[in-house]
Specification:
Blueprint (H helix, E strand, L loop, with lengths): L12 H24 L4 H4 L10 H19 L14 H20 L3 H5 L1 E5 L4 E5 H25 L10 H8 L5 H10 L12
Antiparallel strand pairs: 1-2
Helix pairs in contact: 1-4, 1-6, 1-7, 3-4, 3-6
Length: about 200
Amino acid sequence: METLNISTTGTNSMVYLMKNYVAYNLWANRTLINWLKEKPAELMETQTPSSFSTIKETIVHIWQTQVYWLSIIKNEATFMPEEFNGSLTEAFAKLIEQSTELTTYISRLDEQGLVKKGLIVNPWFECNFQNFEYIVQVINHSTYHRGQIITMAHCLGIKGAPMTDYNYYNIYGRDLSTLEFTQQLLSTLNMVTATPLPIM
């Protein structure tokens, strides 16, 4: 079974933390989706007061925001989200696939890549921060909305939410951070990609 190669050997604490942090995000998103996919699908599209009106819409927002921040970190044309009309299963799979892409890309960056600055100019703000700041931003954003999803689920009568804290991941979750686990989850969603997922 292949695992994420997150090692402190020959690297500094910041590099280790950023790579471990994106691996954590992938694990937390997979854990959340693995829990939600066993619940009634109609509840995922039931309106509940929150930043977004349904759990599905919140999943889509997390996925699309991760795409946006990765485009910033990669210094590519800025991703602008469009309305998503796909199924719940497709939304789940998109989040897992994007979280894998984010983890794979960040795991290959060295210190120079992590401290490289990226200029952002958009209608809401302008900044020119280092990539590691943007990584913290995107993971913090995803964590925030995962918490909202748990609250929305509770309001809908869905109980038994999984623990997805960062420290819990460091103690118990790393053994589950495997390529095989991700592929199994995507397979259960009937959304396995045409090409194999990259080894992280």
